[in-house]
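Researcher: Let's try something more involved. This one mixes different molecule types, so please make sure each is placed in the same coordinate frame as the others.
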Amino acid sequence: MRELIEKVPLKSQTSLILAQDEDEAFPQEALQFIQEGLLEYFIPQDLGGKMKGIDQTMVMGRLLSRRNLTTAIALGQTLLGSLPVWLYGNEKQKKDLANILKAGGLNCLALTEEVNGSDLASTQTSDLAGKITGRKWCINNATRGKALSVLAMNENQVLNVHFIKKSDDYQGTFKNIDKLKTLGIRGADISGIEFTEFSQVNSQIGKAGQGLEIILKTMQVSRLLCASFSLGASDTTLRRAFEFAQARILYGKPIIEIPAVWEKLQKSFQDLLIIEAFSLVCARMVTMNPEVMSLYSAFSKFYTTKIADQIILRSTEVLGARFYIRDSEFGITQKMMRDHRVVSLFDGNSDVNISIIAGQLKRLQSIGPLEVDAKKIFTMKEEAPAFTGEEKLKLTNRGKDIIWESINHYDIDEKQTLLAEREALFDELKNIADMQSIEAINIVHRYTELTFRANYALFYYFNQNDFAWDMKDSKLPLKLVQGKFLFSHFKVQIND
Ligand SMILES: Cc1cc2nc3c(=O)[nH]c(=O)nc-3n(C[C@H](O)[C@H](O)[C@H](O)COP(=O)(O)OP(=O)(O)OC[C@H]3O[C@@H](n4cnc5c(N)ncnc54)[C@H](O)[C@@H]3O)c2cc1C
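Model: All components are placed in one shared frame. Result:
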């Protein structure tokens, strides 16, 4: 998979990527990858696909994103639209979808309606005895896609999800709405679809009324995978900022020697390591301990995206005017910045994820006993099981928090400091009754940051001997850049 994505050096493609973005054209590289069978990596192995653990899907997403977020998000949307079928579909639906992807057909998930936005419970697209009528708006791949998973309200006022194929065996009609003009990912097919009494045999996924559960569990995987967009975009923006800082001479020396510039690069590198560690651990949990993903995917979606936006911002600051000039040698940075802004708003925006964490926070107060093999989860060199769709995802964590249970269990350096800070936060929480209040949300922000730090302490403890570089004090190792590897704890070669 890496060979496929990294076949051509990124820098040789950058002008084309930028030109296609200016033209709002679907990325040529995406079409190439599809033709070369990349969508097979989104199909579980028992359906004849090449999908491995979610940690491997994460690597793939990072490599795609570091080149072009438009490509990564268009292809990632195909997995997002497929997850409801992999998790809840019947044999025929799974087989049909696998065949569509093997033939290079894109897929999508159509939840949003212009009037309802995040409020999925108010979905107006109706499903009356299997006949779907309504309009889905701002949907990635809605027009190009060969299939879609659609959320609709049935006659009993409960939600269903339908897997719809754009083949000719349907009744009623559908038509696509025009591509919308977006700030970023300009070449992506952000359009929509309008159904009128549309029906297709065997389209309902799972049982009647199971729609919300299907979507919530789908997002436990997809929200986590959004970290791959963030890691990839951060990698390229930081890499370009770093290169610029080495080459740009001011006052007779490279600007990398100016402490303010160095600090921005160094801080961004440290931040990147912290979000990488969280994404990698949680990606393993999807197939090892799926019962914690309701909370951990929300942590990841909210905080990883936020940190990546900060890394990107700092990188733009280092580049100065060259970042702002769209066709400069560093034009990729402005594209990454525009493209990445969408990550915090789709697939459940940051506020929605903060509110999910807030809803579970009180139950996390007392740390339970460690009942899982944490060493196995946190040790990256052991391969995680492949994703099958049989993972037992749960709607809430019911107070289970493997990261903190592990902190409590193992004798790591920062243990006492971390636990004391956690206790202080829960002391503050005792006086807060409304968990959606601003006071509660402030605590969610701090608790999330603390959990990322706790995870990093464990990640370091279990993997330090396997790191590819000397990571002491997280100093930016120059050979990461010069040797052309991802900014990572481990060696992931790239073709820059
Ligand atoms: C480029 C792009 C691609 C997209 N692709 C898809 C796709 O493929 N499929 C799809 O279904 N949708 C897609 N969307 C839609 C996206 O998921 C929605 O924009 C998102 O769900 C939010 O809806 P909204 O923008 O209407 O905001 P609203 O829901 O109207 O929210 C407005 C404000 O209220 C806040 N808010 C909402 N709910 C809460 C809450 N619970 N707690 C606190 N604050 C809250 C929000 O943070 C925001 O500030 C895409 C959007 C874009 C821009």
